[in-house]
Amino acid sequence: MRQVSSKLISAKVKDLCLKAATDLGPDIQYALKEALKKEESPLGRDILTQIITNFEIADKEKKPMCQDTGLAVFFVELGREVELDGLLDEAIDEGVRQGYEEGFLRKSLCDPFSRKNTGDNTPSVIHTTIVEGKSIKISMAPKGGGSENMSALKMLKPSDGLEGIKKFVIETIKTGGGNPCPPIIVGVGIGGNFEKSAILAKKALMRELGHNNPDPVLAALEGDLAISVNNLGIGPMGFGGVTTALGVHVEAAPCHIASLPVSVNIQCHAARHKEITI
After folding, report:
1. What tens digit of pLDDT does each residue of 29-45 get?
2. CA 4, CA 207: separation in Å to the nearest integer?
3. Domain 2-20+65-143: which topology?
4. Omega into 123 within 30° of 0, i.e. cis?
């Protein structure tokens, strides 16, 4: 067994929070610059230029690229040969607490009824999987409220099939329009059950842009949806153009014979995600 301290986990999580808020990944940077080359709308090109300038300033000055520094979402792969000296969720929350305080990041969590702020951006949303090995892989995404609000889940009938899935995805994005701050990344979760499809859609957003699902059927669906989404003409920030989505990622799992759950999780252009292996 390998022993890992809670303090180490908290310190690494704190660093993830700080880096995610200020450092846009190279995959998203590349996609935005490529979109600028292809965008046909003059206003769309101007908006993309401003977005690119914004993330360059954020990285240079180590300031948040967006005022909405999000709800901290984690996917953790915990090696079964790791022994912790405390509770994993508590260690992660302590790292979030430290990171949001040290980085002067906006704390956005509140009680759903009184709307009283929790004060430290915790509790986080944590999805943990036990895997082989002696390491801990922590992937973190601060998820903003604007794009999350435009996400949706629907329990389709099995007979709706592939065309029903496509229709629901496109309708969800069309309804969202400019609200989720496009260009967006679209995560689609198919199958499982009610909550599993939503987790799959969230997990799909963590995948690096430019990397299709290895399943050829799902990869083809990703391509078809990306074309259809960009043909909607929503464009950068909803002002029109050919760049509505930088990418569409699909994940799937087996489901009940009577169900076809589909979730659409939308991510804005500030697609912040970082990971570390301890």
Report:
1. 999 999 999 999 999 99
2. 27
3. Dihydrodipicolinate Reductase; domain 2 (3.30.360)
4. yes
